[in-house]
Design goal:
Structural class: alpha/beta
Radius of gyration: 23 Å
Strand order of the largest sheet: 3-4-6-5-7-8-9-10
CATH superfamily of the largest domain: Alpha/Beta hydrolase fold, catalytic domain
Oligomer: single chain
Order of helices and strands: HHHEEHEHEEHHEHHEHEEHEHH
Number of domains: 2
Strand content: 15-25%
CATH architecture of the largest domain: 3-Layer(aba) Sandwich
Number of helices: 13
Distance between the termini: 74 Å
Number of strands: 10
Amino acid sequence: MKRNLAAGIIGVLLAAVLILCGGYDSRQAAEKTEDEPMQTAQTEHYTKETSITTVTHDPVFGSYGRLIFPVEDWYHSGETLGNLRLTWYSHIDPDKTVEIVNYMRNHAEAGDTIFFDIYTEEEKAADPEKADTGLFFFRGEPGGKFAACNAGGAFAYVGAMHDSFPHALELSKMGYNAFALIYRPDAQSACEDLARAISFIFAHAKELEIDTDCYSLWGGSAGARMAAWLGTYGPAAFGGDDLPQPGAVIMQYTGHVQYSRNDPPTYACIGDSDGIAGWRTMESRLKRLQAFGIDTEFHKYPGLGHGFGLGTGTVAEGWIDDAVAFWERQTPPEFCANRFA
């Protein structure tokens, strides 16, 4: 009892000394708490030596942990985060892989919702393939615009860990609210899933604290085709709600050739050594859009092959900043208000 009382007195005296010496300012602390958003502590639970199954089976992720890496596991190889390989992709960055899964775990552990089902339990029971879909959420600033990112994988699998998660994470660091879609890997179903995802985001915009004006659709390879199709025809054409077109479509390394007078402004980038999607095809399509008066931007990177993702450590590194600047050019409200599907 006496020791507890003495400890209490000492604690009070120490606090008083700190205040008098300027070591602690309660007003500054209150202002800092009020003015600065709460940041989730970034603890490194996983390293490059962590096995992929350790991540997918981590209880913190619940039932969606299995969707972090391709469900169609024959399209990826390597047992650890550091030696992950994905079919048709190049320049996979192990440090980014580790950063992404740690970001996910830290936020999930903090109680943040990082994954949303886009279909009801009844819909998934009626069509079991819909159980392998959903939206991973990388939160930006409250009230910020949103982007929906779509990985490629030749409509055989979803290469999100290299082709949409990194993009979404970087966009969230810039203040944008970014979603990465896990979809059913065939062209029609994938577009239906993207239409459903966009409809979900619009329907829940208030609780998600996002701005839906002039949203953007991002995609690489097959994911770029999805972004382009939804950009051209709108979500309603694929079973979604009657919603505005995106303010911009951001495409990487795809042979998509369809276009229309109603296409959104489009940014595209590709390597000139891509053996799957030809750069001339991408450039030709954008020239046709330009002829309609649609804003476009095209980048070709020397010596770069297919599926470079963010392009870290390559001549394409930093392309995402160019793409964001392009998107921002399309965001005046009077422009976006007139772009409907």
